[in-house]
Specification:
Radius of gyration: 20 Å
Number of helices: 9
Helix content: 25-40%
Shape: globular
Distance between the termini: 50 Å
Number of strands: 15
């Protein structure tokens, strides 16, 4: 008889019910499975940001241009986010997911519009097959608008997460300037298109999975936002699509993985691509990843930068508000890989 999970959170199903096979509602059709034996290991560019504010800035900008054009992903070191801030963030995420079930469930909601919520999979209201993850999603800019919603258990949660959010916002702003310059635009161009700006983050928890070849932590998707700054623990799980092959990205301590989101693809008029990536799971180890999503504010109007639109390269996308894009992305879910095709210019 098929097994269907009943608990609200996957982590409690795994820890309490001691399952030795993947419940049927997590199993992907054969054609949609990860095919882990065909994944290749390859590095993505590692960019040293130390010289971003020195005489060699143009060299770093060139490296960012090449990485955005060729990969859509790169890693950064010397990013000015203190090691202690990173360590505290990872530790507080572990502590949160180890709290008793009833304590964690105080944050639970299946409503994607809630600005602080613990949930599971991706969007359980719309999807047919569940994903092997739980997550705590937090809006975090402007900080004072949201911090009062965040968990107070563990007791240092708000302090450590706020410090991390402020540090990663500083990094995001540096990268946005650099990406803007790399496109031949004024360094403030992208910054000024974002309205009041917005920032979200997720604490992703992927429990050990008895049959990792049958399911995903998250299936292939692009990110709807501007850029994503990913912190991950030592357990591999991120894979990126390049030239039709899935590449496994092994974690490097004290680096962040940066990826281009859909909004950069639109603003760059397709010069930079928002690349498909996915999270696979592990049969022996749990995994934690913490993406920070830097976004336009909902009323910001997004479209190709006028300087990048010519007779030879007309606008690929129509203008839209980020709020419209966000709503379509969440209602569509990850059943289809990319939302951008709904915004093509006619």
């Amino acid at each position: 008889m098929a097994v269907i999970s009943k608990r609200l959170l996957l982590s409690d199903l795994v820890s309490s019910d001691k399952i030795d096979q993947v419940p049927s509602n997590y199993i992907r059709p054969v054609s949609q499975r990860p095919n882990l034996q065909h994944v290749v290991h390859e590095s993505i560019p590692l960019i040293d940001l130390h010289n971003l504010h020195g005489p060699d800035r143009s060299l770093v900008i060139d490296q960012i241009r090449l990485a955005c054009r060729e990969y859509g992903f790169f890693q950064v070191k010397n990013h000015r986010v203190p090691e202690s801030t990173i360590s505290n963030m990872m530790q507080i995420a572990r502590e949160f997911f180890k709290l008793p079930e009833q304590e964690r469930l105080k944050c639970y909601s299946d409503d994607p519009t809630k600005t602080t919520r613990l949930s599971t999979s991706f969007n359980i209201r719309t999807e047919k097959v569940a994903n092997w993850r739980d997550y705590l999603r937090l809006h975090c800019y402007p900080l004072q608008d949201y911090i009062h919603e965040w968990p107070t258990n563990p007791t240092s949660f708000r302090d450590h997460v706020a410090e991390y959010c402020m540090s990663t916002r500083g990094l995001a702003l540096q990268l946005i300037e650099a990406i803007s310059e790399s496109l031949g635009l004024d360094k403030d161009y992208i910054n000024t298109q974002l309205g009041k700006h917005a920032q979200h983050m997720a604490l992703n928890y992927y429990p050990p999975c008895p049959q990792p070849d049958l399911t995903y932590g998250l299936p292939g998707h692009t990110d709807l936002n501007l850029i994503t700054i990913l912190l991950q623990d030592e357990v591999p799980g991120l894979q990126v699509l390049k030239n039709g092959k899935w590449i496994a990205i092994d974690p490097v301590p004290n680096t962040f993985i940066i990826n281009i989101g859909d909004q950069i693809q639109v603003m760059s008029n397709d010069k930079y691509k928002s690349v498909l990536h996915r999270a696979v799971v592990n049969c022996d180890k749990e995994r934690i990843s913490i993406p920070t999503f830097y976004c336009p504010s909902p009323n910001a109007v997004i479209g190709p930068a006028p300087e990048l639109v010519t007779d030879d390269e007309p606008a690929v996308y129509r203008q839209f508000t980020y709020g419209e894009y966000y709503e379509k992305f969440w209602s569509r879910g990850l059943a289809k890989e990319n939302c951008l095709d709904m915004f093509i210019a006619t």
